[in-house]
Amino acid sequence: MQWTVDSETGVLTDVLLCPPDHYHWMETNAVAVSTLASSAQFDRAAMLRQWDGLTEALGTAGVNLHFLKPTGAHPYQVYTRDSSQTTPWGPVLTQLALPQRRGEYSAVLDFHLAAGGFHRFASEGVVEGGDIHIVRPGLLIVGHSGVRTNRAGAAQFTGWFKDAGWTTRTEEFPEHFLHLDVLYCMATDNIAVACTDVLGDDFAAFLTAHGIEIVHATYPEVMAMSCNLLALGENRVISPAHSVRINAELRARGVTVIDPPLDVFARGGGSIHCMTMPLKREPLR
User: Fold this and answer.
1) 19 and 77 in contact (C-beta within 8 Å)?
2) Cα dist from 220 to 9, 193, 195, whole Å
3) What is the DSSP letter of 176?
4) Would you list the DSSP string of 218-258?
């Protein structure tokens, strides 16, 4: 297989994106529902500027960009994290839950079949990439709310890793929070941003036991998608500009933070982690 990933924090060399040609806010999650119920107006020009800023940031960081073909029927294709998952053994086609997004599999199939194919296909329940965290070699966390990822989908996915000798954890959380990457993301090999007020003391203790320091996020920060960042490797992250406090906390710990504006996408219920599916990371030693 051409594409392999064994961690969330190894040096990112290749990433899968989808141009936001047809992007607009949809009522597919609590954040977007709140946005659409407010007086906020979708600003397409600002959205396109933010997209350009994101791709520039990735390119400047030395990441090779690959793209799905966007289709008008699937405005949320831009959130490529959900529709596939790269594993240490190759890509997995996930099983999207919402009818509005199920058709996204077609472009993912086209891309990966042209690039070498799949390692596996998710076939039990539903499981989406935003709930999957390949923390480091030998350690996997998969979240499930019962909606976007359910117990059956999480169990099938973690089962493949258990069979390979990995330590796995499934983490249940309220469906209000959409995906686990709204509540938790790895920033570096040993630093995570997480909302432990929601995920609880046991989750915090699990991270601590694995040598991971927690930058604690608040509920308002979570709902602004401020946990949703992308590790680039070598103590570098891309994190939304509006995540001011969290970005400052990371910088205080020696992390290089690249912070393009991404609030238009955040108000639709997704940010940098949601918008990127790593295809290749250097193996984490």
Assistant:
1) no
2) 25, 14, 10
3) G
4) -HHHHHTTTT--EEEETTEEE--TT-HHHHHHHHHTT-EEE
Ordered per-residue pLDDT tens for the chain, 285 residues: 589 999 999 999 999 999 999 999 999 999 999 999 998 999 999 999 999 999 999 999 999 999 999 999 999 999 999 999 999 999 999 999 999 999 999 999 999 999 999 999 999 999 999 999 999 999 999 999 999 999 999 999 999 999 999 999 999 999 999 999 999 999 999 999 999 999 999 999 999 999 999 999 999 999 999 999 999 999 999 999 999 999 999 999 999 999 999 999 999 999 999 999 999 999 987
Sign of the Cα pseudo-torsion (106, 5, 79, 181, in order): positive
* CA separation for the pair 268, 1 (Å, rounded): 33
Q: Are 192 and 215 in contact (CB under 8 A)?
A: yes
Distance, in Å, from the CA atom of 214 to the CA atom of 194, rounded to the nearest integer, reads 6
Pairwise CA distance, residues 133 & 219, whole Å: 21
Separation of CA 260 from chain center: 17
- Residue 196 CA to residue 79 CA, distance in Å, equals 25
d(CA 14, CA 103): 24
pTM: 0.97
Residues 6+ apart with CB under 8 A from 121: 92, 93
Task: Sheet containing 277-281: give its strands across.
Answer: 64-67, 12-17, 277-281
Dist CA 8 CA 4 (whole Å): 12
| Phi, psi for residue 211 in degrees, rounded to 5 | 75, 25
CB atoms within 10 A of CB 201: 8
Residue in 254, 262, 212, 255 with CA at minimum distance from that of residue 231: 255
